[in-house]
Amino acid sequence: MKIFPVAVQPYTVRDALRQDYWGTLEKIAAIGYQGIELGLPPEGITAEEQLQRLNGMGLQIIGSHASFNSFDVDFNRLIGHMHKAGGKYIAISLMFDSKDDVLSKAAQLNQIGELCRAAGITFLYHNHDWEFRQYDGEYVLETIMRETDPQLVQLELDTYWVRKGGEDPAAYLAKWKGRCPLLHIKDMEPGEDQYFAEIGEGILDFPAIAQAAADAGTEWLVVEQDGSRRDPLESLAISYGHLERMNLIRTTAAR
Predict the structure, then answer these.
(1) Where is the Xylose isomerase-like TIM barrel domain (predicted)?
(2) What residue ranges do the domains of the chain occupy?
(3) Residue 58 and residue 41: Cα distance in Å, rounded?
(4) Residue 122, CA atoms < 13 Å, CB-side half-sphere
């Protein structure tokens, strides 16, 4: 089984970051996470300070999730920041109200992907469950992937949202061999609510998912938990511990 480096999507700890930016990042690094999807620093912190402090923590910026349901992003500025930070990926998420809307936005994804490719950055699309709605008998996500150039737009698949959309994450990931460099991993509680769960605390089969990710060429596992019944930092620690016990992640020597 491949051993992956493991990162965090900081939406998990969004409230804590607003209250204590540096302290929260230090706690993430102390758990053992090696990477983070992180964009431009908040007001009052320079990019140079951000990178210097993160380097001291041993926390690598691997990329950034740029926006949710919007193309209103200064991609040139974000690309410049990724170059300074060493990040390789920029991702966005969208919503759709018709097949024409899907096709129009897919064309825009190609345009942004071309901008990113020219700058040496890989552009990713991140799914939720609504991409498993169908227009003309085809999932929205399938349409996006068919209508975008693999050289311009890759995928940041999310295991929880695939399962909530009605598909098996491992089997679905196998469809996108060579096109999913980052994989968002989160678990799902049993029951009708299908609430978010820490990795290893829910119903998803992460050894099978990790094997599919290895076969697909995935580079990083990225833990994200949109909501938690515990303190989110405790949730991140629980997820890390289970991934470690499953022997799926590369761990640091000391934490």
Answers:
(1) 25-231
(2) 6-245
(3) 17
(4) 20
Both tokens of residue 131?
């991409």
Q: How far apart are CA 201 and CA 197, in angstroms?
A: 6
Give Dmax (Cα) for the chain: 53
**C-alpha separations of 231 from 33, 131, 238 in Å:** 17, 29, 11
User: Tens of pLDDT along 125-156?
Assistant: 999 999 999 999 999 999 999 999 999 999 99
Is pLDDT at 170 greater than 60 in this prediction?
Answer: yes
| Residue given tokens 């598909």 in the structure block | 167
Query: What would the pLDDT profile of 64-119 be if each residue is shown by its tens digit?
Result: 999 999 999 999 999 999 999 999 999 999 999 999 999 999 999 999 999 999 99
Contact 222, 8 (CB under 8 A): yes
Q: How far apart are the first and last CA of the chain?
A: 24
d(CA 118, CA 83): 13
Tokens of 138: 């085809």
Separation of alpha carbons 189 and 203, rounded Å:
6
Contact assessment for residue 38 and residue 51, using Cβ atoms and an 8 Å cutoff: no
DSSP state of 154: E
CB atoms inside a 10 Å sphere around CB 11: 14
Using CA atoms, how far apart are residues 66 and 40, in angstroms rounded to an integer?
10
Rounded to whole angstroms, how far apart are CA atoms 181 and 164?
21
* Overall pTM surpassing 0.85 (yes/no): yes
Quote the CATH superfamily of domain 6-245. Divalent-metal-dependent TIM barrel enzymes (3.20.20.150)
